[in-house]
Amino acid sequence: MAAAAAAAVGGPQPPQPELPAAGLALDKAATAAHLKAALSRPDNRAGAEELQALLERVLSAERPLAVAADGEEAAAGGGGPGAAEEEALEWCKCLLAGGGGYEEFCAAVRAYDPAALCGLVWTANFVAYRCRTCGISPCMSLCAECFHQGDHTGHDFNMFRSQAGGACDCGDSNVMRESGFCRRHQIKSSSNIPCVPKDLLMMSEFVLPRFIFCLIQYLREGYNEPAADVPSEKDLSKVLQLLEPQISFLEDLTKMGGAMRSVLTQVLTNQQNYKDLTSGLGENTCAKKSHEKYLIALKSSGLTYPEDKLVYGIQEPSAGTSTLAVQGFAGATGTLGQLDSSDEEDQDGSQGLGKRKRVKLSSSTKDQSIMDVLKHKSFLEELLFWTIKYEFPQKMVTFLLNMLPDQEYKVAFTKTFVQHYAFIMKTLKKSHESDTMSNRIVHISVQLFSNEELARQVTEECQLLDIMVTVLLYMMESCLIKSELQDEENSLHVVVNCGEALLKNNTYWPLVSDFINILSHQSVAKKFLEDHGLLVTWMNFVSFFQGMNLNKRELNEHVEFESQTYYAAFAAELEACAQPMWGLLSHCKVRETQEYTRNVVRYCLEALQDWFDAINFVDEPAPNQVTFHLPLHRYYAMFLSKAVKCQELDLDSVLPDQEMLMKLMIHPLQIQASLAEIHSNMWVRNGLQIKGQAMTYVQSHFCNSMIDPDIYLLQVCASRLDPDYFISSVFERFKVVDLLTMASQHQNTVLDAEHERSMLEGALTFLVILLSLRLHLGMSDDEILRAEMVAQLCMNDRTHSSLLDLIPENPNPKSGIIPGSYSFESVLSAVADFKAPVFEPGGSMQQGMYTPKAEVWDQEFDPVMVILRTVYRRDVQSAMDRYTAFLKQNGKFPGNPWPPYKKRTPLHPSYKGLMRLLHCKTLHIVLFTLLYKILMDHQNLSEHVLCMVLYLIELGLENSADEESDEEASVCGPERCHDSWFPGSNLVANMRHFINYVRVRVPETAPEVKRDSPASTSSDSLGSLQSSRRPKVLQRENSGTAQVFSLVAERRKKFQEIINRSSNEANQVVRPKTSSKWSAPGSAPQLTTAILEIKESILSLLIKLHHKLSGKQNSYYPPWLDDIEILIQPEIPKYSHGDGITAVERILLKAALQSRMNKRIIEEICRKVTPPVPPRKVTAAEKKTLDKEERRQKARERQQKLLAEFASRQKSFMETAMDVERFFFSDSPENDIPMEITTAEPQVSEAVYDCVICGQSGPSSEDRPTGLVVLLQASSVLGQCRDNTEPKKLPITEEEQIYPWDTCAAVHDVRLSLLQRYFKDSSCLLAVSIGWEGGVYVQTCGHTLHIDCHKSYMESLRNDQVLQGFSVDKGEFTCPLCRQFANSVLPCYPGSNMENNLWQRPSNKSLQDLIKEVEELQGRPGAFPSETNLSKEMESVMKDIKNTTQKKYRDYSKTPGSPDNDFLFMYSVARTNLELELIHRGGNLCSGGASTAGKRSCLNQLFHVLALHMRLYSIDSEFNPWGKLTQLEEMNSQLGNEEQQPEVPILYHDVTSLLLIQILMMPQPLRKDHFTCIVKVLFALLYTQALVALSVKCNEEDRSAWKHTGALKKNTCDAEKSYKVLLSFVISELSKGKLYHEEGAQECAMVSPIAWSSESMEKYLQDFCLPFLRITSLLQHHLFGEDLPSCQEEEEFSVLSSCLGLLPTFYQTEHPFISASCLDWPVPAFDIIAQWCSEINSFTERHAEQGKALLIQESRWKLPHLLQLPENYNTIFQYYHRKTCSVCTKVPKDPAVCLVCGTFVCLKGLCCKQQSYCECVLHSQNCGAGTGIFLLVNASVIIIIRGHRFCLWGSVYLDAHGEEDRDLRRGKPLYICKERYKVLEQQWISHTFDHINKRWGPHYNGL
Question: pTM for this structure?
Fold first, then answer.
């Protein structure tokens, strides 16, 4: 069929005359059906030709191309650019469907889809999953659907946001294990899918080639070579936009499944079709033009079309020769032709390399064709060409990837991709959008190269490795510069320039990452390791990075510009060199792979040798230079390590000669010395970046590719070189040779005095690390992991994720240790304990941490490892501090311990030589000298130096040669050694060797010179050197009776011996160079020789040190004299932890154990009594330093004193602050003195306040008022109370919705609008409270300040330019004392404390008298006090309160701006604050006492301010509800005039609101008995309301029964206090109206069918009244300072009512409590009830339904809660992250959910912006009156919006290790942390977000 189609496609034919033009417009379907029929005939020539012609016409490329080339003109002619394409697409769809419907056709094709693979392609930012348990390739990924349909429980998986895009691997067993396939792709489906009917896809086979060709023509036409430098992205994207529909059409075809994909594959790969259509021959001019454009495009890309290229040196490589031998570089000299693989080894073609700045590969070699030749043989190849040319448009990439499930296509496409690889690199380098392009390239290549089978096939058939290596080489070639390392003028070495964009922007990473990817396949890596030519080329590539980014130390002034190129350099070495290295290493794990290692090592050494030659290196590194990049050294080191560890290779067989080893060690050693210099601040003039490099070098992601191989290489060199040479090299590199002298003064020509100490510490520490580190010298992988983990945990407690991050894993993912692997978890549980996160409200949000177990501190803490792994020096200190704390806590050691000495894993036999360093005379001389200097207190020596010296001695004792064969005899023999310091090289023997005289060279000024002879009074005196302590400098170290020993000279001699055999010239070169380096001429004073008498051995020095450290003479006593056991069983725990004294004791014990001689000598030394040290004279210089020290000490003491004073002042302040609070509420007992009226005039004590700004104390007065620091905020927390106990859940499916009907705010709103419908507006506004939403809450920190002080404080804040987290212009500030956030000051009302007691006195007036007094007092007009400062402040704070909330929350009146509104608002503020305090106490007052809220309450002051303002609006006496409550009215006034709206009936009033109105209308301060009177009157009303509500709630029978029983008792004496009587009366009164009518059957259903018992009725009445009692009790507590009693929940009612004075005092509590006993009627009960009921009746005449609704009030609100969240975060994420926004119907980029009401909003979404407010800010105002709590779905974080500020609160979802995962970066499963959520809810309810969260910023309405 395909062949027929191809034939039919044939050459272009003249248009057929059969179809007239109008025929085109005929029904497309009919035409298509006709053609399909024609083509189905056996002889289909005619049909094919007809179709051909039709397609020619429909898909003619001429019209649209005008458009692409020039949009404007084309748009003018005809239906605009889109019309033709639209038409063409319609035709194609019709033709494919062959006359049927296109949709049906799609469905039909889908039925034949053998869906074995998922293959879903996604683009960047898509959420996908990766399961390490199921993945074979590390790049495996799954789409969410396949992941959730598969079973991954307990697997190590994570969710991630795709960076470059990807495709789902479900069903592909090359990439993942079959067990992880999802349900859809588990079935091997080929078996049961029927065969595709022939005719279904027949049309497709004819139409698609033309369609794709048409697309290619468009692409050819549209491409214009960009002019010289003008980027042409605009034109390209224009063309692409036009082609969008065509490409989408192809993409849709690929989604039809396997059947269609195989047709597409046929079309794309068929070479005949391509040839026929695109050759550009024939008479079709359009096709010709198109072909020409194609050739031009090829040429301009630097590619040749095979026909017109010159014949290259060779056409095809002959089989068997390595196609990529050394020619690349050999050819660079232009001398070498084609090489055979046989003679590669001898070639060294890199001499000519550095001659020119840029190196070009020669054109005679094969790789040119890799780079320059492209021949396209199929549509697929040309499509890919254009895809690259257009810089990988997303749509094209997706189309090409969607085809991958077709196996045949996959292979063809991979080959095509490889063929274009060089072209991709060229395009990438030129691209302006290299980031995007890199992502798209990797999106494709990762799908192709992760498959081992495919990678192997392409490697074999298309030379994939050759191509990749060559392309990388070419790429780097473009940015080479001459290396300046070592010999600047003559260096021939070239390195990459890290400043170039290629490196700076990581442009190379797609290619490198492909290379790393294919090297992870064993079959491919094997080919690479076997191919010598490839290895040579690769080493050449690596050498480009050797020595890059060279640093030169600035000696004079600071660098002007700190270059940041080091980022690029480190990234390049890690990605381009180290990662491929780890990839190769992972395949060299077994003995059989020895050959590979030998190859790598061999070519690596050759490359190193070339490098040394190229930089002209002899034996001394150039001074003041360092490069951190030595990838060749590191390749060599890592392959050596592998060879010994895994392949059992003999180390010596792969090591070079001594001379090469000496060279090899120089540069890594230089880096170690430079690290010490950088930390000693010697490079400070190079800026911060040099510190950055030193840190990066040891940082966890780099250390195992940088410092570890360097140290290992040095260990190898040390184990094979002469130890004396090595040790002296170290001290010379560290520049401290001159310091190592016995003389008290010395000169250092290469180092300033202030750097000497830290450099010496650096040198010793380096030696300790070198000698004790075993990372590559015999530790197993698990031991290494354990050591790394212990080191990290000792520095600090760590979270699980930071541990994973900090532990250097082998960077290649296929290596054994992958994060999350079992060994990681098991080691972690062995060494650490998990500390679950703790939550103190107000504390910081902690994460789950791991902390070392006690036994780890005890036995495994390894300071050496810690030093090696710390990026910041402070971490070492931190580890020591934690260690000290552990020892103190466990009573192991009380003082300041020294770092413990840790036993090491045994060395691998190959490295035994390393221990010779500890047994060489040079080291012993250094140790002896340093011990002596420390004992003599020479300057520049620290405890750290001593610690390291002792550590080295102990290492030497631990690793000494086996039992020293009492060699005492041989010692006396003639000494052949170069000096008379020590007899042999064994440390154990040398320790006891006494050294008598040492000759030193000292400056003439040194004290030693003054003495003529070495005479000394005692044989063993220490005094001879004591007087010399002045810091001077000195030259070389000389010693011995007659001989001078110099470290440097020694080293030279050794080097010379080795060099001599190779050449003599080297000496001449070196000599002059070094002399100039080592002495600065003219600077040093003359040196003379002095002889010092020493008479010490290392042992005697140690014992004296013990005395010195302990500060006691003769403090050391050999322990074995008391306990001989000690020598048999040496491991004594008492010595394992301690300070220097312990260390010395431990060393002496070990020395004694190792040799009997030592034991004897120690005992002898101890017997000699040390004479006292003669006193020293103090020189003038020392006096100066002493004075300085003394002055410092005094200054320190002064500072301590000041601090202590300050602390005590602060403490006393805190105490006074507390007292102030006592004054406020005068709830402290000492203020409640009951006073006899008759006593003399009492002392009136005024409340005294402290101003926290000026510090003065005094009362608040009219003209200088004091105020409380307060924060006013609008709050809707109360409005969120609901009446059901079932908490609301966050919706996680479409069905779940939250409706706000049952919230407190909604219910109150409905009630108010109902009242306003039927009653007079002004009366309605007195019948309810507002502020359930947007109420103003006032809170204080309890500190006070003068208002004038506050104003000046605000001024200073305004002028302060520092960016604060708050806005001073809005009046915000922080309390000057406690820094709590505030925004206003509430004036304290001047008043004496004594008044309190006066107004609390009980009086014996009757209730009736009190009622009269109250009425009278309310009637007095409240004149606003005169214009004092206080009254102004009162006014301004009232303004603040009003402005705190939005207008819509203040104005409820129908007539805007009416005074009733203000009145309502003011008493509602009081209500809001009382209600909120009640909620903070848990919704009841059972706990009693002044709660924490009470301690800091400002209600008292707030009441004064509100009362003052409310008195201004005196209510008309006829409207004052007080009358209605306390007097009976004449009946006639009831009728009134009908047309006016009536007043609200008193039974519909909210009693709590009435209470506040009554109290705030009274003149302040209020008297206690008036308060009680008001409460009693209102309780009677409340009780009546309860009865009415009860009567409405029950059914008809109950009502008649109660009516009857109550009526009988009506005339008894306490009828007014019996609820039964009162209830029956209420029922009978209300029966007169229509309230109980129209009940019918449906009513019964509504009312609950409970049988009301007397208990349940009593409970209902009590519950109805309780909220009022609680609020009233709180109010009483604040106004009169009485404590609240605590009680059980069941007795709350009785306790509160007696506390309020409602219960008569003589009331007995024995029999069951009856609420009615609290009643105290002001007028006869039945009369007033009748009056109240009649108001209801007259209303229900007309509106019975509403009348009833208004009577039943819900009084039992549950506490407010945030929405309940699901256990697992994934449920929220999966539902919301793809959910569309209801406002803009798009999927938001940052979706968020409100946790208060569940609304879904777009964070920062411009789509939902209204009047410059983004949606979250808007919602926070509507839902929380300015407070919003949002969960950011894509980040799992909660964000708080408070007014104009916002803060990130943290996350309430933690992973299994108790950690947050902000932004879901790790993608681990997250679970709700209930404690955290509780803390969040608590902060919301208590309004403390502002105080607890510290990091606020302005949101500028943009959230």
Answer: 0.81
